[in-house]
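Lab meeting, item 3. Inverse folding demo.
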C-alpha cells in the first residue's frame, strides 16, 4: 500500500479519524504526522485550484 493510500484511508470528514498506529495523535511517529499534514495541505491546495471549486 502506498503512503498516499494510507493517508486517504485514515481520513474522514473531520480530518484524520483512524491513525495507523494504536492510540491518538500523540502516539504516532512525528514523521507520520508531518507527512499527513503535508498531504492534507497539498489536497487543500489542489481543491482550491480545481475549476469550479
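The presenter then showed the designed sequence:
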Amino acid at each position: 500500500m502506498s503512503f498516499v493510500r494510507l493517508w486517504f484511508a485514515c481520513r474522514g470528514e473531520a480530518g484524520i479519524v483512524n491513525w495507523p498506529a494504536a492510540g491518538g495523535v500523540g502516539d504516532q511517529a512525528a514523521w507520520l504526522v508531518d507527512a499527513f499534514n503535508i498531504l492534507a495541505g497539498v489536497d487543500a491546495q489542489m481543491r482550491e485550484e480545481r475549476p469550479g471549486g
